[in-house]
Amino acid sequence: MHVPRVFIDTAIAVQATVKLDGAKHHHLRNVLRLKPADAVILFNGQGGEYAAQIDTITKQETCFTALTFNPVDREAPLYTCLLQGILKRDAMINALQRATELGVSKIIPIQTQHLSEKRAQLAGRWNAWRAVIEQSSEQCGRTQLPELAPLTAFADAVSAAQNSAFDLRLLAHVGASEAQPALATPPQRIALAIGPEGGFSDPEVTFARANGFIPYTLGSRILRAETAPAALLAHLQTRFGEFAEWQA
User: Are 40 and 3 in contact (CB under 8 A)?
Assistant: First the structure.
């Protein structure tokens, strides 16, 4: 039987009572139709998860008791920071979901020249993106949430990445050579920049290259903007991360 996983942004302790209201309470009560004594799994992004049961569920809130703690760690050992160009609403949701499922460590939404959404429409989007990441983490079994940075201008995000301790910086770019970067040792921290539906502009590519980013592509086909994060993160996990052991 499937046991729902619930992210709660609060402290959790064994035998302590935890309360939940709002949209998640509504989902548990009215969509999943859970009842007292039903089992759930709680996690708060601090590592591990808690087996819990519902004590009471009213119109206003759900109360749980955490029964046992499981120190399981399902996070990817490869640190990946995704600089994601802001996409149209549904495409951005898909990109965030897939990136979370594939173990991304940090996501920086970047405002680029070929911005798909009107800048005035971006207000309030951050909270929706955070909710998507929480839901995806619940679904895929993660015990920590990817960090979601504030909306950041492209140049600021690239400059910050250039000044951070990344072993490899890649820029998804259709016109890039398919040659693999020459590396003395496998990278442990990777920054990956992916543009919006229109891709990066020529000045943005030039600026990124000047700040240590290597233009990079997978194959000869053009990927949709929401497909690129999943394809590239899976590729990097296969080359350098938790999927590498499956290589022949």
Answer: yes
Structural domain count of the chain: 2
Inter-residue contact 8 to 145 (CB < 8 Å): no
Domain termination site, one of 70, 94, 126:
70
**What sign does the dihedral 7-13-15-18 (CA atoms) show?**
negative
Q: Are residues 235 and 132 in the same domain?
A: yes
Please give the model's pTM, rounded to 2 decimal places. Answer: 0.90
Give me the torsion for CA of 143, 243, 186, 133, rounded to 10°.
-30
Q: Domain of 106: which CATH number?
A: 3.40.1280.10
* One pLDDT digit (tens) per residue for the chain, 248 residues: 689 999 999 999 999 999 999 999 999 999 999 999 999 999 999 999 999 999 999 999 999 999 999 999 999 999 999 999 999 999 999 999 999 999 999 999 999 988 766 665 777 899 999 999 999 999 999 999 999 999 999 999 999 998 888 999 999 987 666 556 667 688 999 999 999 988 899 999 999 999 999 998 877 788 888 999 999 999 999 989 888 765 44
Q: Are residues 58 and 94 in the same domain?
A: no
Residue where a domain terminates, one of 52, 70, 88: 70
What whole-number distance in Å separates Cα of residue 48 and Cα of residue 226?
30
- Distance from C-alpha of 93 to C-alpha of 84, rounded to nearest angstrom: 12
